[in-house]
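Entry — protein

Goal — fold tokens:
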Amino acid sequence: MAKNNSNFLFQRKFAFDYWDKKTTSLSFDFAKDYKKFLSSCKTERKTVNWIEGEARKIGYQVLQNIGPNTKKPKSLAGKKFYNINRGKSIIFAHFGKKKISDGLHLISAHIDSPRLDLKMQPFYEQEHLGYLKTHYYGGIKKYQWTALPLAIYGVVVKTGGSVINIELGEKEDEPVLMISDLLPHLSKEQMEKKLEEAVKAEELNLIIGNIAQPGKKEEENRVKKNLLSLLNKKYDITEEDFISADLEIVPVGQARDLGFDSSLITGYGQDDKICAFAASRALFDLKNPEFTSLVILVDREEIGSEGATGATSNFIIDFIGELLYLEQGEYNENYLRDVLSLSKAISADVTAGFDPDYADVFDPNNTARLGAGVVLVKYTGQKGKAYTSEATAEYMAYIRKILNTAKINWQTGSLGKIDIGGGGTIAMFLARHNVDIVDCGPPILSMHAPFEISSKADLYSSYQFYKAFFGAKK
């Protein structure tokens, strides 16, 4: 029987062209909550604290002290647990109707973003100006971080164990920090350099003050001493205390609507907090899941995922092992591996959106567009598919069925033309445990810039998909 040729085509659909007014309104309301989250959670610690607070409101409890003396509940269906790893990663579980032996449904995302960190001994003075030395974190374009108002977030831990929280620069009545830029009148040589070389890493130094401590004018480091004195009065810390500190430098500014139609969002750290928010909300809105469902939010993805709080840490597998212990009353390594092999996972991460101003680096057929929905990415990596996992055809078909059955706006994507660049996600680290996994998240523009751009349509489509994934019956 002859069919309409248009049925044979896969067509990208822009959500606002197809959604009714109610769905469009829901997407805008969802974006309001997201912008509040994004503005409040610029670091991993802030994100963990915020999401933990939301989880506790709806009955999530800390999973701890699991062992021989643990009392096994009569029924685990509907029970909700979480755990935090060193204040910088967090994992949630909502027990489903089926036993864990039938497999888990997992969504993983990362909550770190490119930024500047302070060096262990950052303070110095030069030409009567006080400075802090930084070390950039993740893939940044260094020139984008000059002449930009910056805030400082983090903790200083003293040898006695007390933790000093520092947040400065975000409120309107607080001073900001800044890295100077060279005036154009004297920039001839600088502007003839490659962009990568125009601003060097060791030049990303924060200006922090100009007033000297009273004393002899010939005395050295009077500005530095005055600044350390001010910090000591406010926080009761000394220069040595900065050796045991996690202090991050991020752009000042709230997440905002972008465009005359307010259809877009701009803000710092959307890679990958947009997925962390959408996945967490999907789990928190879940009612009576068939499978035990987890959201895993990790640190250190932007620098390779190594470390105790990254995706390569045993924290994730240990948590799943404790869930099994809670269900079975014992721990069995083979059983754990069987469960992982039956599990299904999403690596919730952003991908590149097609930018018409830089069209030469994109493959038009295989690059996502802003506003056309959540993006299904079979593989990431570099050059000949290096440094990545790749979803099987069978798993891609499984995900497609969920997307189409739930009538979610979706599209495919990749990270630019082959051999131009590339990048990876945390998918390959869960895949090492024999878990089926695929990358799926919204596209963004200006990735890794101080302020990135996303679409409200793609944010909401991602939430819809993550919720449908958790709600799958098979």
Notes: Residues 45 and 87 are 6 Å apart (CA to CA).
